[in-house]
Structures are given as C-alpha cells and as structure tokens.
C-alpha cells in the first residue's frame, strides 16, 4: 500500500532505523519529531484481526494530535473504539489515488481538517459521552498486572462468598483462535503457512506454552520443523 501511495505521488516522510532516519530520543519522544505533521499512517502488522488496534493509532497519532490513517483492523472495530470522525480508514477508498486526493483535500482545507478533532470539544454532554476518547479512562491491566488484579479480586470475592471463583480453559486452541476473523489467520507466504501449521499443531496437542517457556527449545524445534517441511516440498 505504501509503495502504491508513493507511486501515486504522495509526499511521505519515513522515520526509523530502517529508513536511516532514527527518531530523536526514544519512543516517548515521538511527538518531538511528528508533531508538525497532520496525518500519521497507522498501518498495523495484521489484517482484520479482532480488536487489534495498537499504539500506532492511540499513542503515535491521537495522543500527539495527528489524524491516523488506518489500515489493518476491521472498520467495525475502529468505529467501536475510536472517537467518531477522528480517523481516515484506508479501505473506504477504492484506489490509492482516491486516498491521496482525500489527504490533499483535507491538507488544503483547514476547516474541514479541524473536523477530525471535534470529539475533543463536544458541544453537549451527550456528544461528550459518545465521543469520549477511550484513552481517557483507566487502561485495562495486562500481563502480570492483570494476573495480580484477578488474584486480589478473587480474595475479595472469597471473603464475601466463602469460595474463590473457578476458571478453566479446556482448549488452548479454542482460546487462541476461537471466534477470530478468518482473514486474520490467512498466511500470505509459504513460510507463514508452514509456521501457522506448526503453531496449530502445538496448540492442538496443548504443548504450546510448555515449549514457549523454553526459549531455545522453541527456536530449535521451529528450525527443525521448517527444515523438515522444506525438505518434504
């Protein structure tokens, strides 16, 4: 997509070590580099994966005050989580040229461009509730913080009821893949097909977490599996 936009004549600045234009400071200092821009290309590393909207949208764009140009998540997820009319969705455009023309239009028309930030200054309490940025509420804890929260909440529940909540996942495969959009799981290359088959194999036999807990064993078994599959081809 980016190549198509460049071929269409879009002027695009790319930063990062891969582009030989490293950012000043660290990730938290991103605003020092991009605050002078209007749009940020929030292109995710997956396609139509459920609820997959990352810092490319939240921190790199909305937090700094840029309009995210989004590709990757489904439109339904974007509409569900982002403030109304705060973004540009790539799949809304039939061709890269149409997207380029839209970006140029908003760039030239300041009044129309400012409309992307109406959610910041709602005129009524109702609009405020509808357009409130999800980042303004406490973020859900993740990782060890999530585990800690569950443990403490279980302690509170046990004090109230005399018993602790019981949770069980009967299948790692169903927990990992269940309900996911098929487009998200569709590999794009032979290597991705091989690795996806390998991971599904691990999940079906419920050994995924065990192998992942041993980093070098995981790397070794992955390498052996890939070599075997290539040999079979």
3D structure, described in words:
The protein has 233 residues and is mostly helical. The chain has two domains: 2-136, Rossmann fold (3-Layer(aba) Sandwich); 172-232, no CATH class. The chain is 51% helix and 5% strand. It has 13 helices and three strands; from the N terminus they run ααβαβαβααααααααα. It has helices spanning 2-7, 30-34, 55-63, 75-81, 96-108, 110-114, 125-131, 143-161, 172-177, 182-185, 190-204, 208-212, 215-232; strands spanning 39-43, 67-71, 88-89. Strands 1-2-3 form a three-stranded parallel sheet. The chain is globular. The two termini are 31 Å apart.
Architecture blueprint of SSEs:
Layout: H1 2-7, H2 30-34, E1 39-43, H3 55-63, E2 67-71, H4 75-81, E3 88-89, H5 96-108, H6 110-114, H7 125-131, H8 143-161, H9 172-177, H10 182-185, H11 190-204, H12 208-212, H13 215-232
Parallel strand pairs: 1-2, 2-3
Show unreliable segments.
131-139
Mean pLDDT: 78
- The beta-strand count equals 3
Number of domains: 2
Q: In what range is the share of β-strand residues? A: 5-15%
Count up the helices: 13
CATH topology of the largest domain, by name, is Rossmann fold
Helix content: 40-55%
